[in-house]
Amino acid sequence: MLFIFVFNLLFSIILFVSQPKENEANRWMIAFAMSAGIGALSESLVSDIIPTLQKMGIIFILPFLFQVHIYFQFLSEVISPYAILMYSIVYSKIVMVEIKRKLSYILTIPMVVMVFVTDFYPDIAINFKVLLVWAAPYFLIASYIMFYTFRSEINRYQKQNKFRVFIVLVPAWLGVFLFNYVFRAVNPYTELFRFVPTFFFIAYMLFVVYIFLHGAFGIKVKIEQQHILDKSMKIMSGGTAILNHTIKNEVSKIKFFFNIAKDSIEKKDLNEAKNSIESVFSAIEGIDNMVDRIRSKTEEIVLKETSVKLEELIRDCIDKIHPICNSKGIEIKTQLKSDVTLHCDNVLLAETINNILNNAIEAIIVPKGQILVQLFKIKNGISIEVSDNGIGIPKQEMKRIMEPFFSTKKNIKNHGLGLSFCYKAIRAHDGEILVHSKKGKGTSVIIQFPKSRINPTKLNA
Questions:
Q1: End-to-end alpha-carbon separation of the chain, Å?
Q2: Using CA atoms, how far apart are residues 30 and 255, in angstroms rounded to an integer?
Q3: Which intervals hold domain Histidine kinase (predicted)?
Q4: Which of 324, 330, 354, 332 is nearest to 447 (CA)?
Q5: What tens digit of pLDDT does each residue of 195-241 get?
Q6: Contacts of 307 (CB under 8 A, 6+ apart)
Q7: Burial class, 365, CB count within 10 angstroms (exposed 0-12 / middle 13-18 / buried 19+)
Q8: Among 253, 301, 418, 433, who pairs with 355 as Cys (CB 3.0-4.6 Å)?
């Protein structure tokens, strides 16, 4: 049993030091790993450690260790199902933040009840029948949520990663449920719980294999040379580079509108000149908003979330590029079929949509260019799709379009950050971004957000 404690402690340390502090799901996984670990330590105390110390004549610490055994076993039995269910809820993102917060409190009620139905003296005697009444739904619901999460994932890479997490965790905790909860509820004196280490050992082996070969829990160990310096430089330059990309886009708009204003003044059309100058101020405001968001060169994207009417935000983005499209003979069509209020960072999302629209404009070289912007409900959330009839992206370049600094435009002024920024921004919103393109036919960029980000009262097809 002691090896479970050691390995779970090691597993928890790896998750803690390798993952961002904002990763709430892994915090719950650490809670489960440590609760299972202290349960194993509790068993080791009475079966191995205390008898060994007693034989050695070290008896002054034995009463304290026995009390540790009592409380560690209780905490292990009641925290494990709770932590597992909360992990699955947070990991799957199936509920909104406010509901998740309430559940984290409500689901502790059975744990409190267990305090009053458990005998702590002279040795702990847990009522496993009462424990099973609420622990069984916790384990089974958590298992179903994990299965549903990987089965319903539409992104191929994410689906594979979620399957690996599922195959590492669910068999292990179902083994704990069966041998430690069900069998002990039938017979409190059974020794079948000693099979539990087998399930943990298999889970450890799978975890090690996956982090070396594919990655799991956001962790991947590379056997080849680790490009630590390159990774550090990318993080340091990320904020500045994204800001440069934003400035490039907005400066292009400013130059365009100033040229219109200049022509309007020469024609003495002051109203048109005024409108152009107002558009310049709008572009400058866009730069200001993005500057405010980049705290330092090393920070990851941090969301400032508000409730935003998605259709209005999309129309605002389209209105800003209408003059440019008109000057280039590009027609913009919209099919916004869903009235949705989204919990998102409106500045980042607007910048993402602007980037995609700008890419569509730059890709169109045919005389009658068309851009179609769609908003519609999908099975697991909401989707925004921007399609154009531009030049498309060559097949050999499709695999690299999300890479920072890679650009399909052979132009020194293009920094290759558009889709890289979009990817980071959408992933920060728990969403997915997909690109379909055919050279000479056009490109479609699809943004998908999960249901957990949508106000349920505003999701109408």
A1: 54
A2: 53
A3: 242-453
A4: 354
A5: 777 877 777 777 667 655 555 555 444 433 334 444 444 544 555 55
A6: 341, 342, 343, 455
A7: exposed
A8: 418
Euclidean distance between CA atoms 67 and 120, whole angstroms? 9
CATH code given to domain 304-461 = 3.30.565.10
Strands 330-336 and 369-378: parallel
Report field, pTM of the whole predicted structure over 0.85: no
312 phi/psi in degrees, rounded to 5 = -65, -40
* Helix, strand, coil % in the chain, rounded to nearest 5: 65, 10, 25
Read off the pLDDT band of 312 (50, 70, 90). Answer: very high
Give burial (CB, 10 Å; 0-12/13-18/19+) of 309: middle
As given in the structure block, the two tokens for residue 9 are: 């402690």
Q: Which residue has the higher pLDDT, 435 or 278?
A: 435
Q: What are phi and psi of 458, to 5 degrees?
A: -120, 20
Residues 75 and 38 sit within 8 Å (Cβ to Cβ): yes
Distance between CA atoms of residues 178 and 415, nearest Å? 55
2-213 is classed CATH 3.30.1490: no
Express each pLDDT in 408-424 by its tens digit.
Answer: 554 433 333 467 778 88
CA distance 421 to 403: 9
Q: What are phi and psi of 116, to 5 degrees?
A: -85, -10
Tell which residue, 248, 299, 334, has the closest CA to residue 424. 299
Q: Give residue limits of the domains in the chain.
A: 2-213, 225-300, 304-461
